[in-house]
Amino acid sequence: MHFQWYPGHMTKAKRQMQEDIKLIDLVIELVDSRIPLSSRNPDIDELGKNKARLILLNKADLADEKQNEAWSEYFKAKGFYVVKIDARRNNGMKTIQNVILEACKEKIERDRKRGIKNRPVRAMVVGIPNVGKSTFINTFAGKACAKTGNKPGVTKGKQWIRLNKNVELLDTPGILWPKFEDQLVGLRLALIGSIKDEILNIDELSIELIKILKEHYSGMLQERYEVDESQDAVKILEAVAIRRNCIQKGGEPDYSKAAALIIDEFRSGRIGKITLEFPEA
Ligand code: G4P
Questions:
Q1: 81-84/52-58 β-pairing
Q2: 176 alpha carbon to ligand 1 midpoint, in Å?
Q3: pTM, to two decimals
């Protein structure tokens, strides 16, 4: 599989982020709970050094809760604050507010010692495309979405969303590009739908998914499609095609249709709560 991004676009976005990051105290980085490492761009660690760091394990509703917990511990051990969320829902947002203050307590204390009172913490949301940045900003800011900025003395052109007296959020998220020089990373990004489907071989992708499910989530394919999981992956795909009536005109199984169906049902969580990448012990 070969993927092409637009270097000009990437360079511009990175430069923008370098500028924006100077203005903030805290980086709120969204990752996809199903592939928490593959959905990161490690450049953010360099860009965000010296800033407080919060990782949101987003789309936690689609991932395996046991692995969500394991990933949460993994990132905490590396010094990040971590919260698991479903960015479409409100619950969890209060926790995030509290964690932001906790993550920025040193800055708040520094301000206090200098006699600066009530200066809100400034945060910025970053992540790869489709990870849920806009959804999160909408839910988190909610109705309290009073925009500040463009006032004299305020950084020109930047729009800040004032969440409350303690926190302001930059209204435009920073886009990071996924890194998929590694084949496996590319495969995982493709499975969650972060790479355009037109440039992918969906049949191959579904076979890889079936293999992962057989290995780590034994019983799920059987449960959903009533297929015998002891067969090899291609046979399973064929069995799904027959079960779900994906049949070509001549009566042959339509592999591509069955492949698309499996991928779609995986992405929407209908096969089950599935994590595709596991923290190393
Ligand atoms: P972005 O700004 O980072 O590019 O991502 P965006 O918020 O546009 O979200 C991308 C998609 O992911 C959206 O779906 C959104 O509804 C979905 N999404 C975001 N957060 C979560 C989450 O925590 N859980 C789940 N299950 N989905 C989430 P979409 O494809 O644009 O529309 P639809 O599929 O909702 O119809």
A1: parallel
A2: 16
A3: 0.92
Boundaries of domain holding 207: 196-267
In this structure, which residue's CA is closest to atom 22 in ligand 1?
A: 59
Same domain, 72 and 205: no
Whole-number CA gyration radius for the chain: 22
Residue 159 Cα to ligand 1 midpoint, Å, equals 23
Question: Tell me, what CATH number does 26's domain have?
Answer: 3.40.50.300
User: 130 C-alpha vs ligand 1 centroid, how far in Å?
Assistant: 6
188, 191, 194, 196 alpha-carbon torsion, rounded to 10°: 120
How far apart are alpha carbons 203 and 24 in whole angstroms?
Answer: 44
Pocket residues: Cβ below 6 A from ligand 1: 58-59, 61-62, 86-88, 127, 129-135
Whether 87 and 155 share a structural domain: yes
pLDDT digits 0-9 by tens, 69-121: 999 999 999 999 999 999 999 988 899 999 999 999 999 999 999 999 889 99
Each residue of 40-68: pLDDT tens digit? 998 899 999 999 999 999 999 999 999 99
What is the position in ligand 1's atom list of the atom closest to the CA of 129? Answer: 4
